[in-house]
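ARCHIVE CARD
CATEGORY: sequence design from structure
SOURCE FIELD: tokenized fold
FIELD CONTENT:
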């Protein structure tokens, strides 16, 4: 099965599960196009594209990547960018960016105004070159799980990875990192990746200090314990295989690794 066939099959399954919605994807091998008048973004591409390309070449990574995957860790304040050149390749780590500011505590977002960074499995659903925070990439919060488990009337919205260094529930990585991330995501989207997965975990489970901190937070909280058990399965799967599993949501709103 080719990368594009596999991507389409997975995408259609996720649509059926309500994890993603249909989007129109740009096609072509040239640099991504932008809305008329987006001079700011074009300037950033002119300035940064060669730098990003050289970083890929230095690490012997295919440019542009056929697929990318982002995962972020709240307690550890890290955002990792993984890429690969074909469907048969394992994902390889391109770069780890520092999350420069964070609001809220451990646990998923459940209501508007709680200042929580969501935890769970999302994808990029918006490229915003005119963000108040330099550039931003929107996440599809609330997803299918959140719509079941969060406040039905006020679940919250507008969760982004962005520049600058402020947060009321978003993931800020400052300006130069978001420029690099925005460029990579644009090329991956242009190349046919129908959605770019973004997984947000409370901690890096394989770091003892982080795991111990989370265990202390979760003591006596049965619902959060089960939630973390489910999302940790996805972390463990990726750590072992360097590939992404298909993740479904059951009627209770729980993530299920298929």
């Amino acid at each position: 099965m080719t990368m594009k066939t596999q991507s389409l099959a997975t995408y259609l399954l996720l649509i059926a599960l309500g994890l993603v919605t249909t989007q129109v994807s740009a096609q072509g091998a040239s640099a991504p196009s932008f809305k008329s008048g987006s001079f700011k973004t074009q300037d950033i591409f002119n300035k940064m594209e060669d730098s990003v390309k050289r970083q890929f070449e230095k690490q012997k990574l295919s440019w542009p990547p056929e697929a990318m995957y982002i995962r972020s860790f709240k307690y550890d304040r890290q955002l990792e960018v993984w890429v690969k050149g074909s469907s048969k390749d394992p994902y390889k780590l391109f770069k780890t960016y520092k999350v420069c500011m964070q609001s809220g505590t451990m646990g998923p977002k459940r209501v508007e105004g709680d200042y929580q960074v969501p935890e769970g499995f999302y994808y990029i659903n918006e490229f915003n070159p005119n963000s108040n925070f330099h550039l931003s990439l929107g996440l599809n919060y609330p997803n299918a799980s959140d719509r079941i488990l969060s406040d039905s009337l006020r679940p919250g919205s507008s969760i982004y990875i962005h520049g600058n260094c402020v947060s009321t529930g978003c993931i800020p990585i400052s300006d130069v990192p978001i420029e690099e991330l925005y460029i990579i995501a644009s090329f991956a989207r242009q190349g046919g990746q129908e959605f770019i997965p973004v997984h947000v975990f409370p901690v890096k489970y394989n770091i003892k200090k982080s795991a111990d901190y989370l265990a202390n937070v979760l003591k006596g909280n049965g619902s959060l314990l089960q939630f973390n058990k489910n999302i940790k399965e996805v972390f463990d799967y990726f750590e072992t295989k360097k590939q992404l599993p298909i993740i479904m949501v059951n009627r209770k709103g729980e993530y299920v690794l298929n």
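CARD ANNOTATION: The CA atoms of residues 56 and 63 lie 6 Å apart. The mean pLDDT is 87.
SHELF: design records, drawer C
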